[in-house]
């Protein structure tokens, strides 16, 4: 007997595997973009941060760019900064991600970028924190 997958689990699985077409289908069918899977994570938390078109789709449908990971407190901006995905960092900022959000270790996204050697991302986030409104 095949087990039915909850819509939120199906959406997070599609996001995690980069299946933009299926994500679009599920969202257009009314699946909650901020719904959590069985692990308590939303699609924007589990997606591959280097997939900017997928991030844009989720954000256009109202994904919360500031949702913290229940275990670490990291936001999607922390994850994108840690991985050095500048395009996704810019996109998250454009959709009101908080560059001053801190995780459970009291680290901000800019701190994550510095720790992992992504200086271009760190410099961009520094400019944002200093009030430079040029995010694109």
Automatic annotation (TrEMBL):
GO terms for biological process: negative regulation of cell population proliferation; regulation of G1/S transition of mitotic cell cycle. This is Cyclin-dependent kinase inhibitor 2A-like. GO terms for molecular function: cyclin-dependent protein serine/threonine kinase inhibitor activity; protein kinase binding. Gene3D superfamilies: Ankyrin repeat-containing domain. ANK repeats lie at residues 72-104. Keywords: ANK repeat, Repeat. It comes from the Eukaryota. Coiled coil: none annotated. Pfam families: Ank_2. InterPro entries: Ank_Repeat/CDKN_Inhibitor, Ankyrin_rpt, Ankyrin_rpt-contain_sf. SUPFAM superfamilies: Ankyrin repeat. GO terms for cellular component: cytoplasm; nucleus.
